[in-house]
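Notes on consecutive records. When two proteins share a document, each keeps its own sequence and its own token line. Never mix them. Below: protein one.
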Amino acid sequence: MADMMKVVLSTQAAAAHWGEGALLSFNDDQVLIHLDLARQEQDALRAIQRAGRRLESTGIKRVKLAGEAWDLERRYAFAQGFYAAKGVRELDLGEQSVSDARELDALIKASRWVREVTNGCPEEIYPMSLAESALLLIRGLAGDEVTARITAGEALREAGHIGIWSVGRGSEREPVLLELDYNPTGDRNAPVVAALVGKGITFDSGGYSMKSSDNMLPMKSDMGGAAMVTGALALAISRGLKHRVKLILCCAENLVSGHAFKLGDILTYKNGISVEIQNTDAEGRLVLADGLMAASDSGAAYILDAATLTGAAKTALGRDYNAVFALDETEQQRALAAARAEHEKAWALPLEPWHVGQLTSAFADLGNVASAEGTAGATTAAAFLSRFVRDEGKGWVHLDLAAAYQKSGNDLWATGAKGHGLRTIARWLQEVTI
């Protein structure tokens, strides 16, 4: 087998024959990444990730990071770029301190799990398999500190989880609610400090409000929120998380059949709120409502939900930033600070109590979409969710994961899941206190 290609960081410009401002140059079994000394470190990380993406795209599959200039963040940036959904790659991260190696191993394992499960074929990643995979991941890290309850199929309706049951009832594969309890305290009466809620739509056809083929093709990724919060909890546990956390995954396939939910249906939730279905392709908020009520019932002081929820968030922010919503400004700022600390991109979008008034229905308390001209789709989706958390949204933050998936690859990311948001949620989780 051929030796590994060594990858070295350099602050010297590439020789002229490699082109003006060249990012890469090659010398026998060595490739140099040329960094501009004038760059801020954040720009340097992007350049390193770009180099990793470019090397992978050229067909180089076995590399070793060499030299003194690599630190933890630079190694991780390269690893993020040196990835693709198919094929085998080998990456030797080079000599590191014990603490850096431990953190980098946790980062890469969590992010790779998120990317691989999100990229998985929807025939293999379905509601029950997603719940079981998440449980297996967390139990593998925390063992007896984890207990879980899975509610599936008709048992969801009987338990009052009307959103998950309704969205998933059109599929032959039953919808699932996973309620996982991570309790490292050893005290069964310990307070639940935080709850994570994830949208786990393992395939989204749009239902009777059907998507076009082009828009439906990447919809195996609509469980990206469930994958993201699971990976974030895994990362936080690997970092030494010591407080009790609930993980709640709302899993279903949104398909068309003779038993699928329909436009004009009215769902009445456990909290008494009735919702008219005005668009079956706005299903994520319907399943998250059940998860948010379960999170509120757990007594968690802090609640974070994550979802690939709206195209409007991508329209507003593109594929680089996740959108952050909250009625609690302190929580919104804490989530944004967590993103900055972890070198991830997030941006605050507006949410006010009066936005709920834009979700009107002549037949129910709420419509599941806003139909008036000029309404902000990502904001009204967040407003819908706000009706299902307690204390008027105190301690709650919602992430619309615009940056979680790349429909087409670019110079930073391979086609598919990115894991962008994983570190933000893990940091947010580590820093909550009661």
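Protein two starts on the next line and is unrelated to protein one.
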Amino acid sequence: MKIRKHFILTGLVQGVGLRYRAQHLARLLQVTGWVKNTWDGCVEMELQGKEQEIANFLERLSMGNFIRIEGVDAKEIPVREENEFCVKS
């Protein structure tokens, strides 16, 4: 069953390639959604897929060389009709 979650990631998450790593992982793991930097130094993201795929995505995302995710605020939101993952500016 597909779910969708909205995330706010804090820590060393901007300027370290997190958004493009997220895009690569999303394609690899076949999850959809989007990611973008926020004005306050956080990263905002929505992921849609199976719960295990999303958990795997987050685990692998934090393995980036310079990425240091210190906080994850997550909430489940309604599933949307979409078929890709994109980086928003």
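For the record: The CA atoms of residues 5 and 77 lie 6 Å apart.
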